[in-house]
Each structure stands twice: as structure tokens, then as C-alpha cells.
């Protein structure tokens, strides 16, 4: 029997493929390539109860289940296109790629807009704008970022960061997730955004049109303090004037970013023109050592408390009710496991209450990076640098002010004897409290969750996936959108609630409610997005179903009259 099988296989090599193994590789009849075989319902193979779904939605859900392999491949192709805003790598190509997504969706207007020079003196990356007129009464704005962080530690990745490889979760240290896609931007934020686009494409495919009109705003500067998007809102807010709501959003902390530079030229000591040979340290002052001592003068010995006079002025502290919520959560918090999930040895405090409070309502002064002189790892090479630069972000909360913090930094440097140290303001993202969670768009999210059996209590308030739940808890704090912070994004440009600074003319409610999908390790090695979850709602298909249901219910819930629409199709 064995010899006969071998003979058949040899013949197969000559005349065509013959199955010579008991295990067959599933292939797509359309393309001939192997199927991914993604289970939309996860390893439990138990999908949501869709029996109460309106026929319009049920058709969308069925389409998503049938096409989930293609949807995952859409994300794979996007991740394969680098889009690193810090270096500019792939940014023009990515902007055009995103425009192509909106063209494929059928948006009548799609534009890549050059925003020009920003107020910080640097050019902003393009903003991709699209308007999809479905002839609907209501219009939903959708915010995207198409840029990602750089890859700083490539040797630590289990798969190349721009391959979009799909691997078992256990191979990436995620034993509870069946299959994940590894790649820069997987969770921050291409995975969640592609889930949105896939859901919208599916909805239009089976129903002919979407239940709402759409306005997309996709920026390429999120990892550069949103400097280009801020300029866009200053110049082009009118392009969003018909938007009735932002699909998804949430509150934001403030963040201001600076570079500090110490140079022999400004100091008047040490090398003044260029780096010099390291032997010169025997006789010459070092700008590098001056920079290190300057930085040390700005924080406590442990580096955790800024020593900048007036830094904590105007800082709002948690209310008694918020502290009660923190204490309830802390009672069930395992700090050791949380730290492991986040890839850190331990937190500054061993008290769960303090850790949760700092993570939601705290401030920080971080050293993000430093460079100058001999930057080559290993080997040697004697250098006395003539200039050292360090990068810093200040995280702040209501009612603090970013530019005011930089003025206080300048005053402290001068007081400490470092008047020669230069400060370059890279950008500022003011804080936002967001809006009420009792809005049509938030209630649509909640209704979608209820339909599919995902409760707001389980998932808490909806926030941008890349800025959600920094501490790695199983679920976020039970606080309202108007109260929570933790991670910055340009909420202040959209929000109809209180903001640290108003830029532009847009003021709309932001969607809060149940969410699906799962991802993590933003800004870190082995960033991932779960393409197949342990259950239906933490995989990509589940995320798409919640998007489709939220859009449907928003079209059905109208307590606030929609804004007038100017397009002919909506008259």
C-alpha cells in the first residue's frame, strides 16, 4: 500500500496536485491560496445570540462570519505598509492607501490634504478626509490615525513588525488568545480601525447603503502630538460641520512634549563646533555631564516627582466618589499580575489604590529618549560630545495647562543655573472631559452591546482602542466619560464637553458603550491584535458586529434633531 501511494504521488508531481496526506490544506477556490480558517466565534465556537437582530443587521452579521478571512487579510496588507510619523517612513504612501480605503467604500469625496507648516514650526503630515453621502438624515464622524510609532527593539519581536504574521497567541506570550496578528500598528490603531472599515463595507455590500452618512478624518501625526490635525481643525473645521456625533471617543488627559538641549555653544564651555576626541575630557568641560546634572535637578532622587515650582498648581484630585470606586477595584486587583501584563517589574507603589489612582488621575514627567556623541552599541570610540538632547513628555490633568508647565520648566531651569539649556516645544494636546454618556451615539453603542450580549458593566466606557485601559486591568474603572482619564488623544478637537483649549469650531457628542476586539502592547515589541479570540466578542469578527450594530441603532435613536444636510442626496 505504501509503495502504491508513493507511486501515485510521483505521478501527481508530473500531472497535477494529488492529496497524498491525510491532512488537507484548506484553500480558497477563488485565489488558490491557503485559507486562514479564522473562527469568527472563537475557540468556544459559541456566537452571540442574534435571534433578536433586525433582518438588516442579521445579513451583515452573516456576511462578516463568511468573509472574516478576507477581513483579516485587509488588516494584514495595511500593517505591511509602514507609516512611521516620527521618521516620515511610508507616510505619503499610507495617506494614499487610506484614501483608497474610502474610495472603495464608495465615499463621493476623498482628499489627501496638505496641512502645511504647523504653529510649532514643523510641517504637519497629511490629513485624509472623506465624506460618504448615503442620503441619510444623520451623519457620523469617524476619527482615525494612520501613523504608528517606530520600531525601537526589532530583535525582541517574535515576527517581523511589518509582516502582519498570524501566530498562535501562546507563541507571543498570550496563552489565552487563540490567534493574533503581530505588527507595528496592530492595536494602535490599525486593527480597531480596519474592523470599523470591514463592518461598513459589509453593511453596504448586503444592504446597498449605510444607515448613516459618514465623515472620515484620518491623521498622520498622532504619534507627533497631533500637530497636523490641530492645524487641519484650525483651517478646515467647516468640513465637519454636518457631523452629528463622533463614532467613538472618550476623555483625554493632557500631554505636552519638549526637547531639552545642552550645547557647548550656548554654555560657552566645552566643544563649541562639533564633537571632539574623548581624550579632551582631561582638560575640557563636558556638555553631556552638564545635561545629566540638569535633568537630575528637575526630579526627586527616584525620578518620580517633578521638582518644578508650581508644577502641581490647579491640579484636580479625584473626588470622594471616584476614590470609592478606586478602592472597590483595588480590592480585586493583583498588582503582580498587572505588572507582568504590562511588561514591567513592579509599580512605583505597592498599594493597589495608589497605583490605580496614579494610572487614572496622576501626572508625570518622563525621559523618553536622549542622544548625542557616540550612539553605536558595543565597541568603543572616544567622543566628547558638543551637544546633548533629551525628549520629555509631561502628562497632566484638568485644570492644568501644557504651555504653562513649560513656562514653569523654563523658570526652574533658570533658577537652577541652566539658563543656557534650550527648550523646544514639540506639541501640546490639551485635556478633555468629554461629554455626557447619555447621548444618542452612546446609547446606540449600549443598545448594540445589549443586542449581542455585551454589557457596559463588562466593558466599561468606550475609549479609543489604543488608549484604553493602560494598566492592563480586566475591565476599566466604573467612572463616567466626564470623569475618566488615562492616555491622551485629540479629544479636545471634537468634544462638546469641557476642554483645556478649544481649537476649531467642532463640538459634538462622542460615542461610549460596549466594545469588542482585543489587542495590546502599543508602542512596545510584539504589538498584537486578536484576529481569533477565545470568545466571539474578543476577536475581529465580534468587533465588526458591534460596529455594524452601533451604526444601525444610531440611525434609529433620535432625541436630538440632526443638523441640516447640504448634499442633494439627503434632501
Can you walk through the features of this model?
Strands 1-2-6-3-7 form a five-stranded mixed β-sheet. Strands 4-5-15-14 form a four-stranded antiparallel β-sheet. The radius of gyration is 26 Å and the shape is globular. Helix 2 packs across helix 5 (186-207), helix 5 crosses helix 15 (540-556) and helix 13 (440-452) crosses helix 15 (540-556). It contains 15 helices and 15 strands. It folds into two domains: 55-253 and 432-565, 3-Layer(aba) Sandwich (Aminopeptidase); 255-315 and 363-425, Alpha-Beta Plaits. Residues 1-25 and 457-485 have low confidence and may be disordered. It has 571 residues and is of the alpha+beta class. The longest helix has 22 residues, at 186-207. One of its GO terms (cellular component) is cytosol. GO terms for molecular function: metal ion binding; peptidase activity; succinyl-diaminopimelate desuccinylase activity.
Amino acid at each position: 500500500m505504501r509503495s502504491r501511494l508513493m507511486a501515485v504521488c510521483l505521478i501527481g508531481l508530473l500531472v497535477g496536485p494529488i492529496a497524498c496526506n491525510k491532512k488537507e490544506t484548506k484553500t480558497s477556490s477563488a485565489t488558490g491560496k491557503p485559507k486562514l480558517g479564522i473562527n469568527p466565534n472563537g475557540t468556544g465556537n459559541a456566537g452571540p445570540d442574534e435571534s433578536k437582530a433586525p433582518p438588516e443587521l442579521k445579513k451583515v452579521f452573516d456576511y462578516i462570519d463568511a468573509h472574516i478571512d478576507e477581513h483579516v487579510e485587509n488588516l494584514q496588507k495595511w500593517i505591511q505598509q509602514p507609516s512611521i510619523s516620527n521618521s516620515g517612513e511610508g507616510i505619503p504612501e499610507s495617506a494614499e492607501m487610506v484614501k483608497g480605503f474610502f474610495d472603495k467604500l464608495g465615499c463621493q469625496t476623498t482628499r489627501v490634504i496638505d496641512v502645511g507648516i504647523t504653529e510649532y514650526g514643523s510641517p504637519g503630515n497629511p490629513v485624509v478626509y472623506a465624506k460618504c453621502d448615503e442620503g441619510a438624515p444623520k451623519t457620523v464622524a469617524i476619527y482615525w490615525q494612520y501613523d504608528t510609532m517606530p520600531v525601537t527593539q526589532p530583535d525582541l519581536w517574535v515576527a517581523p513588525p511589518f509582516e502582519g504574521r498570524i501566530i498562535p497567541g501562546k507563541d507571543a506570550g498570550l496563552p489565552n488568545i487563540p490567534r493574533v496578528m503581530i505588527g507595528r500598528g496592530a492595536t494602535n490603531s490599525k486593527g480597531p480601525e480596519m474592523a470599523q472599515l470591514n463592518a461598513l463595507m459589509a453593511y453596504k455590500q448586503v444592504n446597498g447603503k449605510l444607515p448613516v452618512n459618514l465623515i472620515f478624518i484620518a491623521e498622520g501625526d498622532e504619534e507627533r502630538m497631533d500637530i497636523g490635525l490641530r492645524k487641519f481643525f484650525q483651517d478646515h473645521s467647516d468640513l465637519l460641520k454636518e457631523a452629528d456625533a463622533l463614532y467613538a471617543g472618550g476623555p483625554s488627559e493632557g500631554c505636552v512634549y519638549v526637547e531639552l538641549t545642552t550645547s557647548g555653544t550656548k554654555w560657552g564651555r566645552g566643544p563649541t563646533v562639533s564633537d571632539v576626541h574623548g581624550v579632551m575630557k582631561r582638560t575640557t568641560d563636558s556638555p553631556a555631564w552638564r545635561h545629566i546634572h540638569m535633568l537630575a535637578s528637575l526630579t526627586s532622587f527616584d525620578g518620580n516627582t517633578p521638582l518644578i515650582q508650581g508644577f502641581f498648581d490647579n491640579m484636580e484630585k479625584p473626588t470622594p466618589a471616584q476614590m470609592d470606586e478606586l478602592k472597590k477595584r483595588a480590592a480585586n486587583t493583583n498588582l503582580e499580575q498587572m505588572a507582568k501584563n504590562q511588561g514591567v517589574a513592579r509599580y512605583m507603589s505597592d498599594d493597589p489604590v495608589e497605583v490605580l489612582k496614579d494610572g487614572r488621575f496622576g501626572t508625570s514627567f518622563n525621559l523618553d529618549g536622549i542622544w548625542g556623541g557616540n550612539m553605536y552599541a558595543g565597541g568603543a570610540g572616544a567622543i566628547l560630545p558638543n551637544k546633548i538632547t533629551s525628549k520629555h513628555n509631561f502628562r497632566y490633568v484638568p485644570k492644568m495647562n501644557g504651555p504653562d508647565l513649560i513656562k514653569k520648566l523654563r523658570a526652574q531651569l533658570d533658577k537652577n543655573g541652566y539658563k543656557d539649556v534650550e527648550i523646544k516645544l514639540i506639541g501640546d494636546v490639551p485635556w478633555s472631559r468629554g461629554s455626557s454618556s447619555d447621548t444618542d451615539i452612546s446609547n446606540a453603542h449600549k443598545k448594540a452591546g445589549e443586542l449581542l450580549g455585551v454589557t457596559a458593566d463588562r466593558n466599561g466606557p468606550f475609549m479609543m482602542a489604543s488608549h484604553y485601559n493602560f494598566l492592563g486591568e480586566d475591565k476599566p474603572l466604573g467612572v463616567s466619560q466626564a470623569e475618566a482619564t488615562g492616555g491622551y488623544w485629540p479629544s479636545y478637537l471634537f468634544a462638546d464637553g469641557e476642554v483645556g483649549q478649544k481649537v476649531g469650531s467642532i463640538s459634538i457628542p462622542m460615542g461610549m458603550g460596549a466594545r469588542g476586539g482585543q489587542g495590546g502592547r502599543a508602542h512596545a515589541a510584539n504589538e498584537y491584535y486578536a484576529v481569533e479570540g477565545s470568545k466571539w466578542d474578543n476577536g475581529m469578527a465580534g468587533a465588526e458586529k458591534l460596529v455594524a450594530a452601533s451604526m444601525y441603532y444610531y440611525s434609529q435613536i433620535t432625541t436630538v434633531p440632526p443638523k441640516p444636510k447640504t448634499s442633494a442626496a439627503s434632501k
